[in-house]
Amino acid sequence: MFMTPIDTSALDYGASTTATTTQDGTDPAAMQDRFLKLLVAQLNNQDPMNPLDNAQMTTQMAQINTVTGLQQLNLTMQGMVEEFSTMQQIQGISLIGRSVLTEGNRMSWDDGQAKGHFDLSASAQDVQIDILTPGGVLVDTVKLGAMERGRASFEWDGSDYSGNHADLRYQVRATNGESAVASTALQQSDVVATGSSAGALTLTLSNGDVVNYFRVYGVL
Questions:
Q1: For residues 21 and 16, what is the distance between their CA atoms, to the nearest angstrom?
Q2: pLDDT, tens only, 152-169
Q3: Which architecture, in CATH terms, is 104-188?
Q4: How far apart are CA 216 and CA 55, in angstroms?
Q5: C-alpha of 183 from chain center
Q6: Cα separation of 21 and 35, whole Å?
Q7: Which of 106, 119, 171, 195 could form a disulfide with 187 if both were Cys (CB 3.0 to 4.6 A apart)?
Q8: E strand or H helix at 113, and its extent?
Q9: Which residues belong to CATH 2.60.40.4070 in the chain?
Q10: What is the pLDDT of residues 39-55, one digit of tens each?
């Protein structure tokens, strides 16, 4: 006898009418329980002279087990996402008051002394740092010479500069002979607050920027 697929639409409709049954409608254990009750009822009312087909019954049981397994996996993943978000918030709070490096070309200042950071994509025979005004006018050049691949920093004495220190920017020029070496300018800022955007941790920095945590290159 061909086994007619069990129709659970009536139960699903009833499940949406109350808060209690709504929760059961998304609970894998409750859904499996409803299926088994319907299956037992169908077996109890079958024609003994023409019983249900075993293959069809096995197929339906396999299908409900697959659906239940996927729902349980979704619940597990949701729990992991929520736990990860909580861990991110705790980690973010621990960064308040710390200095972090993010992409940017502003320098940090301490009593007229400027400091900047950068990453080199490869070793360079000659590295120079140009100190520039907002309009691109060259103020000074810091010569660092040959440097290895990786992160480095520089310092510049800006005590004689009469303009606004906060307006100055820097540019990294790294070369191997006539070939340019790619670099990433990094700026140092203190973390003053944390937040969340689209489930991702954000940091509010002392320079006014708000950056995603994954854009932090390092913690000092």
A1: 6
A2: 999 999 999 999 999 999
A3: Sandwich (2.60)
A4: 57
A5: 24
A6: 15
A7: 106
A8: strand 113-120
A9: 104-188
A10: 777 767 776 666 666 67
